[in-house]
Design goal:
Elements (H helix, E strand, L loop, with lengths): L1 H20 L4 E7 H5 L2 H13 L2 E7 L1 H9 L5 E4 L2 H9 L7 E12 L13 H11 L3 E3 L5 H13 L8 E3 L4 H11 L3 E4 H7 L6 E4 L6 E8 L10 H11 L2 H9 L2 H4 L5 E2 L6
Parallel strand pairs: 1-2, 1-3, 5-6
Antiparallel strand pairs: 3-9, 4-7, 4-8, 4-9, 4-10
Helix pairs in contact: 6-7
Length: 273
């Protein structure tokens, strides 16, 4: 009898061991190139792994591609910056919530001699009109990223289209796009943080900034497990809580001051005390 009881408990243990081993300690984060290129992502994820034991595998792409990963169930959580696309993603049931938690802004870059004369523009839409009318070279990411969507939105508000012969779509990330624009001495739209992280190796300069249409909001969206059972819901929630915490706020608000001479991102989420 005792032997049977021991075998019974041994069987329970053998069943329990695989269940424990199955806990998923890897989180797939689909995010944007700007938070990776500036170095902020590495700083945050290193601290997160140290504190929680979870490993985050970031896929840094344009927001359009990041959202597609979420729609295919190939990411656990998104960190993106295209509000209209984000809202649609959640409304269609692919994401369970959307939390806007930080921002930076976009700037219009161009050659220091400003051949189009956009420095005197009254607004960013006015600057785009001038670029179109002067038919100067403009380099676009052309990758359906948050930056690309913002650029297209400004063209639309300006009621202009870029000159086809002077419009170059590179289909690459922010850093690569800025470098190509620099090589070609062209105009381009970039987020300020990426520009500052690249500035020392560029001849391009900021020609227009500080416009309400240049605000760049970043949001977090956990992917819906109701649609994709393989999504790491627990891991995504732990990462979400970390990114919406006082420790992350402190890192974000201090990031860039020493290396780049100014704050790169601004934390907006009201941390619960």
């Amino acid at each position: 009898m005792l032997k049977k009881i021991m075998l019974f408990f041994l069987g329970l243990m053998l069943i329990a061991i695989p269940l424990i081993a199955q806990e998923n300690k890897i989180i797939i984060l689909a995010t944007t190139t700007s938070v990776q290129d500036t170095g902020l992502l590495d700083v945050l994820l290193e601290k997160f792994t140290t504190e929680t034991g979870y490993t985050v595998k970031p896929i840094a792409v344009g927001t359009g591609q990041a959202i597609k990963l979420g729609m295919n169930g190939e990411a656990d959580i998104l960190w993106v910056h295209s509000p209209d696309d984000e809202k649609k993603f959640v409304e269609e049931g692919y994401g369970i919530s959307r939390t806007t938690f930080m921002h930076n802004d976009f700037v219009l870059l161009g050659p220091a001699n400003d051949p189009a004369g956009v420095k005197t523009a009254k607004s960013i839409t006015n600057a785009f009109k001038i670029i179109s009318e002067k038919a100067v070279l403009f380099v676009s990411r052309g990758d359906q990223s948050g930056t690309h969507k913002k650029e297209l939105k400004i063209w639309k508000i300006a009621e202009r289209t870029p000159n086809k012969e002077k419009y170059v779509e590179v289909g690459q990330g922010m850093a690569a796009t800025v470098r190509i624009a620099d090589e070609k001495q062209a105009y381009c739209l970039a987020d300020r943080s990426s520009y500052l992280s690249l500035k020392k190796n560029l001849s391009l300069t900021i020609l227009f900034e500080n416009d309400k249409n240049l605000l760049n909001l970043y949001s977090l969206i956990p992917v819906n497990t109701q649609k994709f059972s393989k999504v790491n819901e627990k891991g995504a929630k732990i990462l979400l809580d970390f990114l919406l915490s006082a420790k992350t706020k402190e890192i974000v608000e201090n990031f860039g001051r020493e290396k780049y001479g100014q704050q790169l991102f601004f934390y907006d989420y009201e941390v619960k005390k």
